[in-house]
Amino acid sequence: MLPCSTETLIPLEELEVEWMRTDSESLVHLFQDGEIRPESQNQAYSGRASFFTEEIKHGNFSLLLTNITTEDAGVYNCSVYRQDESAQTSVQIKEIERLTVTGGHVISAKADEAVTLNCSVDSHIPPEEMEEVSWKKVDQDILVLMFQDGEVKTESAHGSYMGRVEFFSLDEISKGNFSLRLKDLRTEDKGLYMCEVLSGEFSANATVEVQQLGFSSMHIGVLVLCILAFVFAVFLSYHARTYLIKKYYGRTALSVQCVFVISPNVAMFLAFILWGVIEGFFTETATCSALNLLRIVFLFWTAPYLNTFQDNVCRFIKRSAVTLEYAVITTVAYSGLLLDFWHLYQETQEWIIIIFLVLFTTLLLVLYIIIFAQGFTKMKSRTLNYLLAALTNVFRGLVVVFSYGRNLATVIIVILQFLPLVLLVFLFFCSSRIRKMKIYVFLLMSVLITEVLNTPISVYVHDTVLESNKERVGLICVTVFLHILTVMLLFHVLVLIFEKLLSRSDLNTVRTEESQSDVMVYIFGTVALVCVNSIALAAELILKARNGERTVEDLQVILIPSECVFALCCLTLHITTFCRRYRVILLYALSICGCKRTSVERNHELEAFQSTEAASAAQETGT
């Protein structure tokens, strides 16, 4: 409001009031002949300058000026005329304090493209002296980029935007242009963004919405690979199953089986690699892609036609399939934790951290050496495979505990996982001194039971210690899978022990034939797992493009449990095969534990086995 008034009341018909801007001689407003004359005022003030109509007759000629801009700064004269008399007063509008942010709009784009989120700042404060200008993603409350204290704070960008966002040049910033350049657009970038400006007592903001993110060529590539994997797995399953049932392993049949196993899993491996390139989730991508690639070796290991392969290939798969999967999944799934562990050492310089880190990485390195040594040489050691895997489990737990939550009780719980190792070592070194079969069987069962119990122990440790880690659920699934693989390795050791025990008797093992269960487990692994992988990835990709955010935070929680089911099926199959083959020893073990005999035939088998045991013991006593 520009004030102007007189103490003497003037009749309206004798009154003339003129508001004039002195620097430009522009008529701001006019009251003449008892009426307001809006048609006389300069167009720049039309609709913005007005008298207080009811106050004019009381001598108040103040002017209300609205929607002021920087151009309104200057000196205004109020001239009052009455016949031959006149008077005037001047009012100065100095620099106008203001802060206006504009740029609100909607953007539609495709993934992998670059977009510009507009934000223009108009203020009496020079842009380079602004206290803070920040871009935020509103729906997730994520800081995208910040301009503060005259410089761009690139380190302030959220990890998902690091290296993908930037302001324009400093020349543009000096003009008030704080528009944001967002490159390599991702599906999760969809949403509402706010440009917020703070400077002293002033604040203002503008919003920009990014919507309708279409698929990029890489997204389409992922979908195509998922569809191909699904089609290959389903279409070839009929032919593969037919050949297996007929036990036909000719060149054509083996070619079909190899395509059946390799093609869908390679397609899903490539799909997850592309998914990782697009979305940037390293641990999830590395683990899921490794699972699909390693599944090829694992499926060949379960295949009924494995013995038809070349000797060196067959030997490598038989000896290294389970151990290789264990080593690779451990490496890729826990790489992030190992990196955090290394950063913790750099901060604290604690010697115990570097010891655990060196031991853990050394165990993995030795495990890789043993895998390839057994696969490509005559070296064969089932026991060493299990021992290295079990030791790795313990040190893996210690790395987790010392990285995220040191607690004496938790450390003790992790160390308890050494128990099956201690029992197994005792069994090996003291087996020659154990005369009673009951003790021998008890120790074997104790090793197996304690190793199985290590699984809930490890799950408890991960769930408790990694409570604040975003990868907690995924790592819990991974640790369950790794412990299942460890039990499978232990089972191979127990089979070896039983084979040595059986060699002391004159009884022959029962020869087992390929069963329908073998075929069903193999088909389940080749078809069901690929279908779960392809459907999960395709659904997540489509939903993320539609919603702009992840539906499932980590696909490991879908893929790894299905992999656990397959591994358990394989373990169950091997256990049933083992029970059929070594039923005499198992019956004897049950008999000495007090179990009833169920048939005459089995009674004779047990009597024969007991007589050979007695003869063997007498011979050892004599020597």
UniProtKB/TrEMBL annotation:
<feature type="transmembrane region" description="Helical">
    <location>
        <begin position="290"/>
        <end position="309"/>
    </location>
</feature>
<feature type="transmembrane region" description="Helical">
    <location>
        <begin position="384"/>
        <end position="402"/>
    </location>
</feature>
<dbReference type="GO" id="GO:0009897">
    <property type="term" value="C:external side of plasma membrane"/>
</dbReference>
<dbReference type="GO" id="GO:0031295">
    <property type="term" value="P:T cell costimulation"/>
</dbReference>
<keyword id="KW-1015">Disulfide bond</keyword>
<dbReference type="InterPro" id="IPR036179">
    <property type="entry name" value="Ig-like_dom_sf"/>
</dbReference>
<dbReference type="Pfam" id="PF07686">
    <property type="entry name" value="V-set"/>
</dbReference>
<protein>
    <recommendedName>
        <fullName>Ig-like domain-containing protein</fullName>
    </recommendedName>
</protein>
<keyword id="KW-0732">Signal</keyword>
<feature type="domain" description="Ig-like">
    <location>
        <begin position="1"/>
        <end position="94"/>
    </location>
</feature>
<keyword id="KW-0675">Receptor</keyword>
<keyword id="KW-1133">Transmembrane helix</keyword>
<dbReference type="InterPro" id="IPR007110">
    <property type="entry name" value="Ig-like_dom"/>
</dbReference>
<feature type="domain" description="Ig-like">
    <location>
        <begin position="97"/>
        <end position="211"/>
    </location>
</feature>
<dbReference type="InterPro" id="IPR051713">
    <property type="entry name" value="T-cell_Activation_Regulation"/>
</dbReference>
<dbReference type="GO" id="GO:0007166">
    <property type="term" value="P:cell surface receptor signaling pathway"/>
</dbReference>
<dbReference type="GO" id="GO:0042130">
    <property type="term" value="P:negative regulation of T cell proliferation"/>
</dbReference>
<dbReference type="InterPro" id="IPR003599">
    <property type="entry name" value="Ig_sub"/>
</dbReference>
<keyword id="KW-0325">Glycoprotein</keyword>
<feature type="transmembrane region" description="Helical">
    <location>
        <begin position="441"/>
        <end position="461"/>
    </location>
</feature>
<feature type="transmembrane region" description="Helical">
    <location>
        <begin position="321"/>
        <end position="345"/>
    </location>
</feature>
<feature type="transmembrane region" description="Helical">
    <location>
        <begin position="218"/>
        <end position="238"/>
    </location>
</feature>
<feature type="transmembrane region" description="Helical">
    <location>
        <begin position="408"/>
        <end position="429"/>
    </location>
</feature>
<keyword id="KW-1003">Cell membrane</keyword>
<feature type="transmembrane region" description="Helical">
    <location>
        <begin position="351"/>
        <end position="372"/>
    </location>
</feature>
<feature type="transmembrane region" description="Helical">
    <location>
        <begin position="555"/>
        <end position="575"/>
    </location>
</feature>
<dbReference type="InterPro" id="IPR013106">
    <property type="entry name" value="Ig_V-set"/>
</dbReference>
<dbReference type="GO" id="GO:0006955">
    <property type="term" value="P:immune response"/>
</dbReference>
<keyword id="KW-0393">Immunoglobulin domain</keyword>
<feature type="transmembrane region" description="Helical">
    <location>
        <begin position="473"/>
        <end position="498"/>
    </location>
</feature>
<dbReference type="InterPro" id="IPR013783">
    <property type="entry name" value="Ig-like_fold"/>
</dbReference>
<dbReference type="GO" id="GO:0042102">
    <property type="term" value="P:positive regulation of T cell proliferation"/>
</dbReference>
<dbReference type="GO" id="GO:0071222">
    <property type="term" value="P:cellular response to lipopolysaccharide"/>
</dbReference>
<keyword id="KW-0472">Membrane</keyword>
<keyword id="KW-0812">Transmembrane</keyword>
<feature type="transmembrane region" description="Helical">
    <location>
        <begin position="258"/>
        <end position="278"/>
    </location>
</feature>
<feature type="transmembrane region" description="Helical">
    <location>
        <begin position="519"/>
        <end position="543"/>
    </location>
</feature>
